[in-house]
TrEMBL record, chains A, B:
<dbReference type="Pfam" id="PF09339">
    <property type="entry name" value="HTH_IclR"/>
</dbReference>
<keyword id="KW-0010">Activator</keyword>
<feature type="domain" description="Response regulatory">
    <location>
        <begin position="9"/>
        <end position="120"/>
    </location>
</feature>
<protein>
    <recommendedName>
        <fullName>Transcriptional regulatory protein</fullName>
    </recommendedName>
</protein>
<dbReference type="InterPro" id="IPR051271">
    <property type="entry name" value="2C-system_Tx_regulators"/>
</dbReference>
<keyword id="KW-0804">Transcription</keyword>
<keyword id="KW-0597">Phosphoprotein</keyword>
<keyword id="KW-0902">Two-component regulatory system</keyword>
<dbReference type="GO" id="GO:0003677">
    <property type="term" value="F:DNA binding"/>
</dbReference>
<dbReference type="InterPro" id="IPR005471">
    <property type="entry name" value="Tscrpt_reg_IclR_N"/>
</dbReference>
<feature type="modified residue" description="4-aspartylphosphate">
    <location>
        <position position="60"/>
    </location>
</feature>
<keyword id="KW-0238">DNA-binding</keyword>
<dbReference type="InterPro" id="IPR011006">
    <property type="entry name" value="CheY-like_superfamily"/>
</dbReference>
<keyword id="KW-0805">Transcription regulation</keyword>
<keyword id="KW-0963">Cytoplasm</keyword>
<dbReference type="InterPro" id="IPR036388">
    <property type="entry name" value="WH-like_DNA-bd_sf"/>
</dbReference>
<dbReference type="GO" id="GO:0005737">
    <property type="term" value="C:cytoplasm"/>
</dbReference>
Length: 225, 225
DNA sequence: ACCCCCTGAGCACAATGCGCAAAACCGGTT
DNA sequence: AACCGGTTTTGCGCATTGTGCTCAGGGGGT
């Protein structure tokens, strides 16, 4: 794994060049990994993949010229899907189209480095080599390896209620008051407000004050945008 | 799980009609599975998939009119790849194109039935539902379930108590709290909860949070959808 | 005897709803 | 402009309920 010709060649595809650089830098920390210059569009990804034939593509779900999930179907490369999207349908689609791994942005470096290292071990057990014959146990051991690893290193996991409050705000087609959110989630106003103020404080949602009726200004909540 | 509308619809695609029937019969043994009439060509598979929208396709790698691996890329369905081919390159290609499982023919019935049951549990944890939000842990747990639900060649057997807890949830005509389950099974609340949380984690049952009274939200358990 | 697995009891603490006081607003009056 | 009253909303403390964990004990297998 020390000879350059044996390195795992990794390509990062993300239209946000700072994010792309960050992920490229994470990947470069893994021993035996060589990272190509990141690209920001599906078209550039196709060209880079055809030219360099990377062993692994770190693919963003949303690209300016094409859905990353559609590109995923076409490129016939080993892919990790990296996305801020965390709805189950997107995850299912990505997996169905061949993503070996799905990482919710933002994530800590070790979430990605652990996964890449696991992929390297997987590729050792299940190499892309027609001369190698596997039995069922080896295949399943390989799959367990690629999905093994340490606990997810991403951001702090939200509680179910906090996530439900955030979802209610993100899914609304208009700004919501605390009372609105409480009704939608099914919790008390006080609980909704508790979470809303926390989410606003950490920048996950936005607040606007609504004036014009007697009484305190009403806080209205919107997605971060 | 008795309502036909909640069944997992499975399509077998294999040109050897005896093998296809055998695999269809295996699949039909899994509770909650409805098996379509098998088809023997890629063209027929495309038609059947467009018409019936199966939840799972059991796909042979070699079809008379097209490579099963090429069809795999096109059909955008959840697929198990079943093949006599055991070279590592074919395995890698299948996984890269989205096969959730690779079974080397011939295989025993329980190799397939266990995998299908694991898929059902996976689909409970990662449903194809845009309204559901997942965290990284849930995604990875889902992947572990589908790839390594049980050890090869046989089910991990449930203890009597675990089975009794699962039965209590499945038989109830309404969602149950841990206290309810404890009473029905005749174990302590802590024991019931221990098993309930394990069953929920492995996708065998669903949890909903019940709000409205002071104190922590109450976990309510339902059968898998 | 030793080990492993399972169970229940007890406890710490997480998370919720309720009730209330205070903050903040608007409109009217002086 | 300043003040007041009425109203609405926010934010906090507290009591309560539920979850998850630890530990001791029991039973079964080797």
């Amino acid at each position: 794994m020390s000879a350059a010709s044996d390195d795992l060649v990794v390509l990062v595809v993300d239209d946000d060049f700072r994010v792309a650089r960050l992920h490229a830098e994470y990947a470069a920390r893994v021993p035996g990994v060589r990272v190509l210059e990141p690209v920001g569009t599906a078209a550039a990804a196709r060209r880079a993949i055809a030219q360099h034939r990377p062993g692994l593509v770190l693919l963003d779900a949303y690209l300016p010229d094409e859905s990353g999930l559609d590109l995923l179907r076409d490129i016939d490369a080993d892919v990790f899907l990296l996305s801020a999207a965390s709805d189950a349908d997107t995850v299912r689609t990505a997996l169905r189209r061949g993503a070996l791994c799905y990482l919710i942005k933002p994530f800590a470096a070790d979430a990605l480095t652990d996964r890449i290292a696991a992929f390297q071990r997987f590729a050792n057990v299940v190499p892309a080599d027609p001369a190698r014959t596997l039995d069922q146990e080896a295949i399943e051991r390989g799959l367990r390896i690629v999905h093994s690893g340490d606990s997810p290193g991403g951001s702090r996991s939200r509680s179910a209620t906090e996530q439900a409050v955030l979802d209610a705000v993100e899914r609304a087609d208009a700004e919501l008051s605390a009372v609105d959110v409480a009704e939608r989630v099914g919790v008390s106003r006080a609980t909704a407000q508790r979470y809303l103020s926390g989410l606003a404080a950490d920048g996950s949602i936005r607040v606007q004050l609504n004036y014009g009726s007697t009484g305190r200004p009403e806080h209205r909540y919107l997605p971060r945008g």
